Amino acid sequence: MGRWKRMGIFDKKRIIVVCFFVFFCQMIFSQSQKFRGYPQKDADILSGFSCPPKGYGNVPFYWWNGDSLNRERMKEQLEILSESATDGFAVSYIHLDPKVDVENMKDGYGLFGKTESGRPKIFSEDWWNTWSWFAKECASKNIGLGLDDYTVGWIGNGYYSDELQEMAKFRGYQGELNIQSVTVKGGTTFTYDIPDKFLTAVVWPGKTDLTKYISGDKLLWEVPCDNSYKVYIISTKENHLLHPDIGKEYVRVYFDRFERRMSDAVPDGMNYFFQDELSYPIKMGSWAEDFRDEFERRKGYDITLYLPALKEFIGDITPKIRLDYCDVLMDLAEERYFRPIYDWHVSRGLIYGSDNLRRGKDPLAYVDYFRANSWYTAPGNDAPSTGSSFLQTKVSSSITHLYERQRTWLEAFHSMGWGSSASWLTKQMDHHFMAGGNLVCMHGLYYSTHGGWWEWAPPCFHFRMPYWPHMKRWLEYTERLSYLMSQGTHVCDIALMYPTESLQAYPEANTKITFDQAMKLSNAGLDYDFMDYRSLQKAKVADGCLHVAGEKYKILILANMKALHYASMEKVLEFYRAGGIVIATGELPKASTRIGENDPVVDAMVREIFGLTAGEVVRGKTTDKRVNTSGGTGIYIAGDDLVEQIWSQITPDFKPVGGAGKALHRCIGERNVYMVMDVPKGTECFFRATGKVELWNASDGTIIDYPVVRQTEEGTWLLLEKESDNSYLFVFSPGIPVFLPEYRKESIQIYHTAITGVWETELLPTMDNKWGDYRFPASDMIGAEARSFKHCAAALSPDNWMNPYFDDSGWKESIYGYGEQFVSYFKSAGESMSNISDVLAESRKPGKILEFSWQFGVFDNPGSQGWHGLKGKVSDGFFILDQGGHQIYRSMVYAPAKDNYRVEVCGIKPDFLLVDGKAVNENLLLDQGWHQVVVAYIGTPKTEFKFQKGAYRDFRERSAVVFFPASSLTPEKPSTYAKVISTRWALGDHLLYDPYGGDNLMWNYRFRSAPGTEELEITVVGQDLKIWHNGKEITGKNVQLLSTDRSGICKYRVIIPTPRKDAGLIAFSVRRKPGYQGTAVICEPIKIKTGKGILEAGNWSETGALKHYSGGMYYRKEVVIPSIKSNNKVILDLGEVNASCEVKVNGQDVGIVMGSLYTVDISKQVKSGKNHIEVLVYSTLSNHYQIIPTPYRGDGVAGLLGPVSLTVWETPSLKTKVPVR
Description:
Helix content: 10-25%
Number of helices: 23
CATH class of the domain at 817-994: Mainly Beta
Number of strands: 75
Radius of gyration: 35 Å
Largest sheet: 10 strands, antiparallel
Strand content: 25-35%
CATH architecture of the domain at 817-994: Sandwich
Shape: globular
């Protein structure tokens, strides 16, 4: 509603008409997935920008792991997501960890690990039934459904890729070379047993064919006396990757199978298959049974005697052989594998995306990364939080441009963590759109988070996030960006050679120069495409430009290109002779496919362009710029002035004064669209476009005229006034611009005030735990809770411990459910610990308290999980043996009756297990009562464990010693799919430890509550609850026992008789049940019911129980503003916010803010005098995850951080122009 209220009634009606028309057209024409999201060269972007057609929304990875698939749950999720700008799903499955899930890997696995197959298992009959049902449900919502082949497509994981290998036609197919080399001395006799599948034998130097010296199965050759030689014995081995039918059969066993199974859901429901980390391991040495013939047909010579060049340098001809071989290899891979799969998708008008290994930074991935990744309708890559994937996305978008593919898939953003802020998210998304990404795939959409203990490179950005109500609006922002930046044709002046040829010829070549120069260009606002050799060779030269696939390049850059195909070299020279600009840096080409190295023809071509040869560059020679009679320019740059050289050669398409900024330009019909970012505030920028200039706002679809500083035939100068993190969408169209002097005067600040003091607050819980996503067991909405407590035994507490001003800094703070279980001791490995007396003597000394939870183990130490976060596993070992010495633990155990008992030892067996000072075995008789237990481990290893993202592996030795009644069974380890997260011990009737031996039964606890606390629900293992609020005891009917059970768990409802607006101090005492000490007494979080409270701007996690609160919070305040005139602009600056906010003034919507600049124009909503400001802030899930042992939890910063201020400026208002058809 916010954007409607910011516009006039007439504008509103026009937008409603436009949106209704677009919606009507979609209903009639766009139900089918065919060609959905396929852009147009001359699209009517005015109407499409306001209400984008289907196909430009979010297509997240939908991870179907963590819990058994439930149709009701899936349907609920679909309903929620269909109401956002979400157009499809790429269903994904995770992989196990070979170093953690060892038993599951014993029969082998593909790439990084075996697929965690989910429930029902993927491709089982139950799974297909669920898939077909869900496809129909998606089709009914106009949403596409496809599979991401991540893990399931990896060879070795037992699915369709392996099914191909078992086909008779592929078994035994010879598809890989085995090149063995032997150095032989002159004058000797060389003998060799001919291997199976022998191909040839050759000697280098000299290219001597030794096959004529073979008799039977033996090679016998008399080595000439004049020299030493290398003999190469070449045979083949089984590999089916280049079989002529590989692609056809792949389609049959994979994609066709989906089409058949989805049946009538195909037209409206099938789309967005995705190729993830492609397991198609072609490489230097791949072969086909007809490779020799195909090579000779395509290159004109027999390659067999030259095959040693693939392994070693055999002379000047080596780079030629390697380049020719790779070219033919990729021809066959394309024709036989990539093309059939691509054609299947294109013929159905589907989006087929990719994120393949090495992500563009290794040109040799799949032998030729550029060519391999050109066979998708949406080439792409992932973008992790660990750093920008700008260059990787630039490679992907260059492929899209040069091969005229539909879109550029952007997998965004894995591994950011649960504290992913909206401002970071917006900045990163804009950053990758600047690189050419235009199909948004939010990495994290989890079917389940399994009690908060399941994740895969989190976060999940969708409905579980507190800021989901704002995220839905943000997805509309990305949808508009995706639509706008997909249409038309990309425009740039520069082609930067992608260094495939250089690395194929010289695998040791350095790519750093190429990619460093690329970033320098980007950061200076000089856009470019990476160009591969095929695109260069097919380019047409005209008007001093390279024309290919609708692109037009004025400059070609060779960065450290040591080798080129000869046809590429000829095209470079043709371009130069026709008036083009060729710039080189690093090494110059020294080899080609003509004759290899030391080619005078190539040297002459290079010299003509640059004035020197590759060899002369190596020897340190320099040269001046070369200009021929056609105006062609050749520049060799030995230094670091590439950007300056380009600016001196052409009128750039975009140039920021000061040289800092990025730009991306698309021409769409008569309009020129520039996306600009990273320009310092107040910078004047030149655009090589003219006409009327508008600023298009992708957040709400509105358009305003943008003032021009000046405009000439050459172009337009604009003043950019936002902070550099913010992006702009400038649209140039035919018409007369508005000039800056006519547009406004210099703004004058006439009033400014800091908004300080307390705000009225009200919590808005968001964590719906219906399905147990946040905690088991499933429950209703989770609001404010107390989860950590200062605690002390009553016997050690002073009389005033319940006073709000009591200094409890000396008290320990712990999480609910974790209790004091043992006293632990450490003795260095060099000290003697050889007998029971030594152990007992050490155990009588003062030690440290070991806390753990029988359910969750040692806090923040759940044990190995595998890749990318928690997987619902809890180690049974609560003794972590990593100190590098002697580790001793002492406690008391209570035997409820004189009986036989059993000791269960998990993990490392203790060196000493003493009960009442005596060594015991597995079975023992105990009298009723308390018994001292001492457990000692001698000479434990010193082991480091790093709590980190990525691989969650904890291989520290562990142990547990647990006492059971002899008649009881050992509890089974719960499945990771069970609706409980636990050690096995919590599921059995084990005896309890108590280091106090039943003493210190009264315990005191303190915590600061939440603002506006009205009621508490407290669940404890104990009795006699006494409670104080701000030092005043709460008694009588205000403390109600709601329930109790046989295990001693009591649930209380506590009503605060006189609630306070601020966060008060809660103190309470409990008579614990023996065996539950410290915060183990508190078996659930204390639920806090709140009303309206007060809180100053700042990090709410620093306010008591709000430390663990993830959700929404209203901040409300009355602000008095002096007299306001019609030409005043009133700006509310919220300072910093985490994670997102929504502003209302005087009950009127102002807008949602998710960017890094949390300022809003409230001119239309304010009035002179009193004004009511309301800011609704949603946090991330980081606060909730602070007690869950994930390295992705984040820092928990949340709220209206401030500082908040309000400023009134005297300046004309801006006119808003609304797009109409």
